[in-house]
């Protein structure tokens, strides 16, 4: 079966439409040098990942309803560099620079095939959007990589108040009065495309949506239909154009 029943298509952002130019711990290392950091990116990798996880568990969804999202990220940066900088280092300056740089093309680029798949779906008549676990910077990021104008809406977990894999974030989209959104949409008319098995594919399915996975991980074929998995957006667009897509 093809896309004939699909009227709304959403994408995840990170690692689906967007890619990091370098891994975050590598960029943290680069900027950290200007503030006296002398370690390696491997020194920061575990610290950053552990502190991000700690903050997410203690203050989920970038601190939604508990703190300002910028302060959430400042705490991540401070904890990551704790004991790693000279005592007189301007850690606030480093945190603010990282927060600002991660709005820009210094840190992000558009994944190959993004324009093409969006163009094809737009020509097909689909209503297009983004659903992503992200803070409010996402709108500016998508504008900076020049893809925002191809989207009808952008919803972040921070703005909605629910984070994937909670299916409520998908239900939220169906309840919103978005200009131009097709009327009488049902979950079966919706398709979500992302790179994370749990947060994108299974979460969308739990909401009653159709879902596709963008991943090169062959192990996923053991738990979901292989025709729902594509290694990249280019292959996805080709499958759509050749009417070889089976989302059901």
From TrEMBL:
GO cellular component, one term: nucleus
Pfam families to which the protein is assigned, alphabetical: Hydrolase (PF00702)
Alphabetical list of NCBIfam families matching this protein: DREG-2, HAD-SF-IA-v1
Database matches in PANTHER family: HALOACID DEHALOGENASE-LIKE HYDROLASE DOMAIN-CONTAINING PROTEIN 3 (PTHR46191:SF2), PTHR46191
Protein name as annotated: Rhythmically expressed gene 2 protein
Gene it is expressed from: LOC106113637
């Amino acid at each position: 079966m093809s896309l004939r029943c699909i009227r709304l298509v959403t994408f995840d952002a990170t690692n689906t439409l967007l890619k990091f130019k370098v891994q975050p711990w590598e960029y943290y290392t680069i900027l950290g040098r200007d503030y006296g950091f002398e370690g390696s990116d491997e020194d920061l990798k575990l610290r950053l990942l552990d502190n991000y996880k700690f903050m997410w568990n203690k203050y989920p969804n970038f601190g939604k309803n508990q703190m300002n999202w910028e302060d959430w990220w400042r705490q991540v940066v401070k904890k990551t560099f704790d004991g790693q900088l000279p005592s007189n280092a301007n850690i606030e300056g480093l945190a603010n620079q990282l927060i600002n740089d991660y709005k820009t093309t210094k840190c992000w680029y558009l994944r190959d095939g993004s324009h093409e798949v969006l163009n094809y779906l737009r020509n097909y008549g689909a209503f297009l959007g983004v659903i992503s676990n992200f803070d409010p910077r996402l709108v500016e990021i998508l504008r900076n990589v020049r893809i925002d104008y191809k989207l009808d809406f952008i919803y972040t977990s921070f703005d909605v108040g629910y984070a994937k894999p909670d299916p409520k974030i998908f239900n939220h989209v169906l309840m919103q009065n978005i200009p131009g959104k097709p009327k009488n949409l049902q979950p079966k008319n919706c398709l979500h495309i992302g790179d994370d098995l749990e947060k994108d594919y299974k979460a969308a399915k739990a909401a009653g949506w159709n879902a596709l996975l963008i991943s090169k991980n062959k192990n996923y074929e053991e738990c979901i239909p292989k025709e729902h998995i594509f290694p990249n957006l280019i292959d996805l667009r080709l499958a759509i154009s050749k009417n070889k897509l089976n989302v059901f």
